[in-house]
Structure formats: structure tokens, C-alpha cells
Amino acid sequence: MTQAVPRTRFNSAELVRRLAELAVADVVDPKQTFAERLGEWLDFKDALAVYSALNSTAGSTPGRGASVAALRAEWLRVRASLASAIVAAGAAQPDGANLARPTPLANASAESAADFAPFHRHYLAHQRAMVAAIVPLRAGVRAALGRYSAALKQLAALDAVMEQTLSAREAGLLATVPVLLGKRFEQLFAAHRRARQVAETDGTASPPEQDDDPADWMQPGGWLAQFCAEMQRVLLAELELRLMPVAGLLAAVDQESMGRE
Predict the structure, then answer these.
(1) pTM score, two decimals?
(2) Boundaries of domain holding 107
(3) Is residue 5 part of a domain?
(4) Which listed residue, of 1, 35, 67, 220, carries a Cα 20 to 30 Å from 142's Cα?
(5) Does 215 reside within a domain?
(6) Is 7 inside a domain boundary?
(7) How many domains does the chain have?
(8) pLDDT (tens digit, 9 = 90+) per residue, 49-77?
């Protein structure tokens, strides 16, 4: 049942910490500088695009951009909406994508209910919802920056290049998160079965194949309830990771606004 899990590195301390707590991902102290690690992600063509964005002469004069308050309010709205869907685990997106958390079917056997596939699909659905909301948010903030000042227009151009260049690599890394959670799912189920076997040997419980009602797994203290809580924390950590670039752009707007005061 256990599958090999690829070695994975992430750039979010919170996401790394959550996965490390579950003992499903290695935490590696980076020995390279940021520039050296970034260089491994970029090929020559990408590097030229980054160089061009860094050295562009944004000749436009400062214009009237969206207010800092409006930009931050939209960021908070998107963040709250996505976080609420994760916590509620029962909401549906406007496009009809069901984000409800899977639950064992009534009268299902223990073996058939201990299937990670529905939870994998559940995690992927939330990832798609994040992408659908955050990509246009990031583009909208960039557009506002481009109208705000020449310096912020240059920053927006650099962010656009970085998003285009690194998005595939980021998507590949984040696609491994539900795979790692699948490993945790298997660990918890195996521990649950071992505990039942010990109890049966001691004469304090029925044989493992009897009375192991999957409906009980979601009760307080149940192994599946524990897994769902852990998965929720990982999803929230991934949400913060995906929002970091937008938060960085907004911080630049804040700094520019304070400089004008």
C-alpha cells in the first residue's frame, strides 16, 4: 500500500514545518545563497527576461493607481474566502467545484473506506480553487502597480516574469504535497489497525476485521479525524505560501505610499 515519495524541498517555513511535523518531508538547511538556488530554477532564456525586467527604464510618470486600502482589502477578501472554504470543508465555488471533505460511506468496509484517492482529489480541488482566485488577484495588483509609479511599474514587470518563469516549477513542487499527505494517511491507518490488533490480543476488543466501523473514524480521537485536521493545517499553510508574492507587492505599495507622505 505504501508508495515511494519523492524528495521535496519547499520555500515556505510554515509549509515545511507542517509537513515535517507529520514526518513525511525532509527539512533541509539550505547551504546555497538565494541567488544560487534561484539560478537552478532558471535557464539562460529565463535569466535574460529577468535581467531585462530589472534593467528596464520605466519612463512613465506616476499616475493615479488603485488605493493601497482597496488593494489590501481585495487581498484580504480572497484570502478569507479561500481559508473559509478550507475550514468549512463544505463550501462550493461559484463555478460549482465541490470542496466538501470526503467522508466514509455508510456500511462501507474498513478496507474500502481507507482509500486515500477521495482525499487526494479533495486536496487538488482546493489547489485549483487557490490558483483560480490568486492568479487574477496577482495580475490585478500588478496592473495597479503599473499605474502607481515608475518604480512600481518596474517591480510589476519583474513579478510578471518571475511568475511566468517559476510557475511550472512551483506547480510541480506543490503537486507533491497531497502525495506526501497520502503517506501520512497510510501511516495513521496502519497505526489504527495495529492498535486494534493489540487490543484484540489483550482481549479488550473484537478482532480487527469486526466492528471497525469507518463512521467512528471521524469521531473525536479517531485516526481519520486527526488526518483531516492535519490536512486542513497543511492547506492553510499552502494558501499562505501562494499568497506571498501578492503580499510582497502590497508591501512595496505600502513603502511607496509612506515615502510620499
Answers:
(1) 0.78
(2) 13-260
(3) no
(4) 35
(5) yes
(6) no
(7) 1
(8) 444 544 555 554 455 556 778 888 999 99
